[in-house]
């Protein structure tokens, strides 16, 4: 049986096609398009017309890919941007017309899917914290049960809108961004308690791009991402380096995905703040996440 999952995020729309045989599921194809769906959300409350049209065209192409690959069943989920957009209804109707029926999932569902996706590739254990830094929100999850995750309405696109950076960022802008990330994460994750060192596992674009940069990946290889560990010192070194570069300079780095160069600086501020918050001396990175969790939810 061939299955597909689609994640419609504030910055990126992605699709995973997998094949399930018995209890085994293996990935067949991955598709990614960086659109910035929520780029205008904070200013207008709506998905902007250019991003709206590009996203629907992307979903139409995803539908064609599913047909070509013989997908039997799929699930398409919208996260923070669709939860907030005033024109969500119009977007969902247009998605259906494009052949992709889409649902808007809650923050709790998003956290559960991320947890379920990661545990299929990394051995998670009690006390681990899984972080998913998105464009419109960031999820921290300690397990699949209700009440074991929090969703902060802060993502890299949101931060870029609230605290726009010069090109390259000035030192005071980086300090302000870091303080903002620290405050939002500390205030938003009080349910996890304090004073305990935890393992931090990161998934989604900021984390995987960080590892791709460290490994100088010219071709993205998910198998080299899952379970990779970066010391905290390495993360901080990259945060400072990226914060001192222009968008154009970041784009030239081996491993940088076009369209993500602008958002890596706020993303790195969030990662450093999360490492400090949970007392983690290193970062475990997973390519698997919400897409794999959505696949697992398909009956």
Describe the protein's topology.
Blueprint: E1 2-8, E2 12-21, E3 24-34, H1 41-44, H2 49-69, E4 73-78, H3 80-84, H4 88-97, E5 102-104, H5 107-118, E6 129-133, E7 138-141, E8 149-152, H6 156-162, H7 171-188, E9 200-203, H8 205-215, H9 222-225, E10 228-231, H10 232-243, H11 247-251, H12 264-278, E11 282-286, H13 290-297
Parallel strand pairs: 1-4, 4-5, 6-9, 9-11
Antiparallel strand pairs: 1-2, 2-3, 6-7, 7-8, 10-11
Helix pairs in contact: 5-13, 6-12, 7-12, 8-12, 10-12
Would you kindly provide a written description of the structure presented here, covering whatever features stand out?
The protein is α/β, with parallel strands linked by helices and 299 residues long. The chain folds into 2 domains: 2-105, Nucleotidyltransferase, domain 5; 122-290, Nucleotidyltransferase, domain 5, CATH 3.30.420.150. 44% of the residues lie in helices and 21% in strands. The chain has helices spanning 41-44, 49-69, 80-84, 88-97, 107-118, 156-162, 171-188, 205-215, 222-225, 232-243, 247-251, 264-278, 290-297, and strands spanning 2-8, 12-21, 24-34, 73-78, 102-104, 129-133, 138-141, 149-152, 200-203, 228-231, 282-286. A 6-stranded mixed beta sheet has the order 8-7-6-9-11-10, sandwiched between helices. A 5-stranded mixed beta sheet has the order 3-2-1-4-5, sandwiched between helices. β1 and β2 (12-21) form a beta hairpin. α5 crosses α13 (290-297), α7 (171-188) packs across α12 and α8 packs across α12 (264-278). The longest helix has 21 residues, at 49-69. The protein is globular, with a radius of gyration of 18 Å. The mean pLDDT is 91.
């Amino acid at each position: 049986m061939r299955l597909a999952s689609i994640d419609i995020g504030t910055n990126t729309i992605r699709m995973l096609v997998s094949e399930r045989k018995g209890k085994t599921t293996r990935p067949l194809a991955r598709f990614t398009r960086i659109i910035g769906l929520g780029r205008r959300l904070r200013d207008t409350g709506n998905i902007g017309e250019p991003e709206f049209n590009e996203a629907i065209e992307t979903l139409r192409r995803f539908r064609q890919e599913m047909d070509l690959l013989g997908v039997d069943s799929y699930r398409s989920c919208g996260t923070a941007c669709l939860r907030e957009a005033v024109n969500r209804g119009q977007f969902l109707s247009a998605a259906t017309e494009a052949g992709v029926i889409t649902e808007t999932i809650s923050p709790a569902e998003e956290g559960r899917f991320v947890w379920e996706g990661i545990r299929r590739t990394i051995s998670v254990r009690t006390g681990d914290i899984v972080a998913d830094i998105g464009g419109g929100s960031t999820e921290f999850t300690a397990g699949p049960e209700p009440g074991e995750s929090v969703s902060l309405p802060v993502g890299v696109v949101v931060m870029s809108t609230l605290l726009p950076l010069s090109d390259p960022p000035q030192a005071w802008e980086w300090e302000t961004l870091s303080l903002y990330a620290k405050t939002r994460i500390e205030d938003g994750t009080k349910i996890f308690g304090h004073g305990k060192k935890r393992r931090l596992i990161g998934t989604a674009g900021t984390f995987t791009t960080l590892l791709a940069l460290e490994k100088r990946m010219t071709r993205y290889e998910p198998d080299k991402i899952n379970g990779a560990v970066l010391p905290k010192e390495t993360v901080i070194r990259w945060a400072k380096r990226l914060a001192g570069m222009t968008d154009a300079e970041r784009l030239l780095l081996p491993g940088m995905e076009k369209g993500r160069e602008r958002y890596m600086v706020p993303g790195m501020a969030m990662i450093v703040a999360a490492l400090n918050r949970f007392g983690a001396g290193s970062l475990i990175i997973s390519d698997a996440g919400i897409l794999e969790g959505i696949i697992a939810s398909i009956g």
